Amino acid sequence: MMQWFLAIVGILFGLGGLVLLGERRYRHIRRDILNREGACAIPTRPSALRDLVESLTPHNARDAGHSGHDLLPDGPKALSARLSLIEAAAATIDLQYYTWHSDLAGHLMARHVIAAAERGVHVRVLLDDLHASGTRVLVKTLAAHPLVTVRIYNASITRRAYFLHWLFAFARLNRRMHNKALVVDGAVAITGGRNVGNAYFGLAELMNFRDCDVLIAGPSAAAVATSVQKYWDSELAMPSSAFGVEERAQSAVVDRHIKLLHEEISDQRVGIAGETNPEALARVTDLPSVRTVLADLVWCPSSIVDDHPGIAGPDHRKVARHIADLTAAAEQTLDIESGYLIPGRDGVRRFAALVDRGVKVRVTTNSFATNDVLAAQAGYAKYRHALLDAGVAIHELKLNAPVRRIASLLHGSITGSQAHEDIAASLHSKVMLVDNRLSVIGSFNLDPRSALDNSEVVLLVQGPEFAKRTAAFLEDGRSPNVTYRVTCEGRRLFWHDGHTNRKQEPGITRPAAVLAAVIRYLPIERLL
């Protein structure tokens, strides 16, 4: 038995040695592939979108260097805005996402991106590797087009020994690119909490996210483009050809990929139409003009804050430090909506210090019933009593909160609809508002993973006019039909929604409660 054990250990360490040797070759592999492929020239073409942004910019905003902003809390509207902008592209499209699902929303985005490439638009797609392997067909479809370039961020050097690679190269692979950004012609951008997938845009049949993006025009859109470029040039951005993906394929291969994509979209639309109104689904693809998309911009100062894209560096954890400074400077109110909320002891102390200074602190996050990561919920629950004791007002999302799906775009809210009681909700937004004047919207969750391991990007928007929109979104998220208000009497928690006063945590089951209790005491909080 001991011989077998020693043999297995020897094999594992031998494989680990090979993985570590592969790690040493990682940068050389990337450089060799890039040199072999050569750079694809980016066209310098006139852009009606750039001209439109220029014409819409007020003179005083142009002189002050302000940007235009619009909040995108509604899922279908956020998807249609993306598709309209892609349709209006004339020169470049940059897409940077943590995950891009192979579903209807993902395929619609891909089809519009490929159609833009067919018009001669230069397209770049940067995807984090953690989920890219699950969308191989989609990656191949995008990469096949001669004017679409795909790179994979912080990729494993092996697919056959993926777990072993994580075991021996954890420090590198644990650094994930959580950023989300779309930039069109360097003039308009969308960033925020949404990845690409049905659940982020109200298209999923069983569960949709409450989420939020911000549409940006002007200088801050160019700043998002600069951020994307920084990650694109990073030593961790590997060409998709490194994984056997055929890039810039022959026209017959491209045509075959496009045909399969159209077939997938048709099949998925039929599937969703069976659950909703077919006419409503058809109207969703009737996109607004790009002028309509940009019609309601608020022009004010804003800036982008992003992390260093590498493993470490002078700007590593830059976003976390900036968020900590902004929240500590609150004088009157601090409102936070975060899908994952694990403040840690230091975070609880910072909140307590704010409350002691007279600052009203309110947080909205997932409940046990709506959190899609049990470990994250366990990490949050560990600090719930401490947050309440510190004077923080806590709101938790209801399982059947009216997170909009496709039918609700045209037929009103699903609140109280018997037909849609089986549609679950989950919170994915990452929004903060400081003193009703500074809005913070981006990819940053208030948890250790965002603070310590992931790379993140946030937009800071200054001024009371845009803050009113942010405040309305956050206030909606605290309303009794969306969330429970959590209170504490002694050590007992209560969940209120204006109608009921629950003594038991909504949505929790005994096995899940036991598992969550075990997770709370495991030394894994830093990874959550």
Explained architecture:
This protein has 528 residues and is of the alpha+beta class. It has two domains: 24-293, Endonuclease Chain A (Endonuclease, Chain A, 2-Layer Sandwich), CATH 3.30.870; 301-527, 2-Layer Sandwich (Endonuclease, Chain A). Helix content is 43%, strand content 20%. It is built from 21 helices and 21 strands. The strands form three sheets. The protein has a ten-stranded mixed β-sheet with strand order 11-18-17-16-12-13-14-19-20-21, with helices on both faces. A nine-stranded mixed β-sheet has the order 9-4-3-2-5-6-8-1-10, with helices on both faces. The longest helix is centred in the first third of the chain and has 36 residues, at 2-37. The chain starts with a helix and ends in an 8-residue tail after the last helix.
